Amino acid sequence: MKKILLFLLVAFGGFANAQYVVNYKKVADTYFENKDYYAASTFYKKALKITGDSSQAILPYGKERKSATDDKVVEDYEGSIYNLAESSRLYREFNEAEKYYAIAITFTNTRFRKALFYYAESLRANKKFNLAIDAFQQFIQKNPGDALVKDAQKEIESCKFAIEEMRFPRMVQVKKMPANVNGLGSNYAPVKINNEFYFTSSRPVAVGGKKDMVKTDAGEVQVSTKTNPFINNLYSAKGELTATDVAVKKIDINFPKNMEIAAASFTPDGNTVYFTTWRDKEKYAIYSSKKTGDKWSDPQPVGLQVNSKDFNSSQPFVTNDGKFLLFSSDRSGGYGKFDLWYCAVREDGSLGQAVNFGPAINTEDDERAPYYNPLTKKLLFSTDGRVGFGGLDFFESEGDLVNWSSPKNLGYPFNSSKDDLYFTATDDKGTKGYISSDRESSCCLELFEVKKESLSIAGLLTDCKTKLPLAGANVTLTNAEGPQKITTGTDGIYRFKVDSKRPIKLLFAKDNYFAITKNYPYEELAKADTLIYKDYCLSPFKLGIPMALDNVYYEFNSAELTEPSKKVLDFLIPIMEDNPEMEIELGSHTDNIGTDEYNLDLSNRRAKSCTDYLESKGIAAARLTSKGYGESMPIAPNEIVVKRKKKDNPEGRAKNRRTEFKVTKK
To answer: Where does it sit, as one GO cellular component term (predicted)?
Structure first.
């Protein structure tokens, strides 16, 4: 870490411009206290004399501290470095945060012990997953009793998850929307209705020469600065969004003074809009406005079913059948910080009581920005409460607002190592739409188009004997996402869709047929475009009925298998592997040459050779039985009568010298 200590140019005292440094720090501290982190970071850099081309730093007064004043200088230096790192992280500039936390983790003052956790978090956000894992583990070792240890453990799992996910990207196209929509500031929460595109933006607005007085909690005026021009509001754009001359304008709604607005959602007819509103140091609330002709009514709060001065309600979403309003809130009765809730929308537009989505969806952390499709019954939402890439990730669950499947992470590149939220669909099935993400930004959410694609795995399943389509067979596709199951119809066709090219296993099974397993490695899937079509067949059997293994031979007068015979027995290995509960008997038969006793003993030894060979290939002995039948069960005459005389029948004896197997347990 010695090199890191020489990373920044620092001068807090003992320099000609010391007075200016102190002033800059006070300004920075005031902005930091007022949560204006971008401004705070700017002034901390001025206080620390960090410029764009700074490449080295010198700690004040070298190695030795000479007085209490020197201690105060170092204390101010360390506090400013830490707050600069915090400011950078809190306005989502993780590259900068990583640099300054890397210095802060060398400080011995326990006040800065959490710097190591946030350093690891910054590494994760910057996709340095292995380094992040090491840093999180160091934090856990150094701070075993800290409340952040649980978060660090989850972050480690998330980093491992991200490493694996990025090996097998999902089949999703993600495209950043053009600059005329992605302007300065944050641009997020997109929705398209009636060929008009709506979104939230904090793009700068004209504030003239207005001044804001930034104060501490004690009320002392510390900074006089220009009014913040980055105000969240609702905007719209018509026509092709890829055109260079797209006109972007504010929605013509008469919002109250000093109110910020975000995250609009419309009823299906487009005549009612819900959105999030807030003022400085007030709770978030959901308001609505109604459209008559071309005019929007003044916005009104939706009511106490949703809003309260004691908690936040935000990010409304109206289902495309107009029946439910979904939202995120930290209201009482939840499972964590912000939970997902829903209300019924009555015919008169009033709302029913809020209902929590329950523990299948909500965690002890944040759930945000819900989207629900009544047609597919799929819920998409963002959360930082589950193992993912870190930050807010998209998850998907299937259900009916009462019962839900276990939420699944939508993977890379739908998700990134930063925040990803506000999905909205542009087609009925939710395969195309928009998202908001800061994956390519140093500070702010931006708008992206997304299109889900898939790979079809399909084919025809037949009866190996009759060659006819096999109905009623169970086909299971398994990959890292879990199993999918279908039953073939009368046409014998099987078909699955997957959204990544992770290795796949197909299992085909039907009563009284040998199940088979087929594996598709990544290399094979990677060559495919959108379809892999392969036909397979299943072989029938009957319990307890023997089936001959042709061409199983032994050395003369011996029970030792020949090499070609071993290859024939290899045929049984995949059958046994694909049917793990099945047990079989290997039976050996002789012709009538030799005594009964000798033939019985020889056949027993030969049958045992077969089971021994299969055991050597990994088949459990408990699933194998060997039995010799000697010459007691011929399937062809050993002798034939020609002109009333018995004559040897070599062809018949050859058929009787056989090895069979039969299924004794399925």
So the answer is: cell outer membrane
Residue-level pLDDT at 52 = 57
**CA 453/CA 430 separation, integer angstroms:** 11
Q: What is the token pair recorded at 614?
A: 């299969």
pLDDT attached to residue 305: 93
As a whole number of angstroms, the distance between CA 504 and CA 507 comes to 10
Q: How many CB atoms lie within 10 A of CB 289?
A: 22
Which residues does the chain have with pLDDT short of 50? 1-22, 53-66, 207, 209-210, 212-214, 216, 218, 220-224, 226-227
State residue 11's pLDDT score: 37
The label of the residue with tokens 């099935």 reads: 429
528-558 b/e (C-beta count within 10 Å ≥ 16 → b):
eeeebeeebbbeebeeeebeebeebebeeee
pLDDT at 314: 97
Query: Two tokens at 137?
Result: 């583990």
Rounded to two decimals, what is the model's pTM? 0.78
Q: Tell me the C-alpha to C-alpha distance, in Å, between residue 387 and each of 115, 329, 405, 435.
A: 22, 22, 16, 20
Domains in the chain, start-ordered, CATH in brackets? 4-165 (1.25.40.10), 172-207+228-452 (2.120.10.30), 455-538 (2.60.40.1120), 547-665 (3.30.1330.60)
- Element (DSSP H or E) covering residue 233: strand 233-238
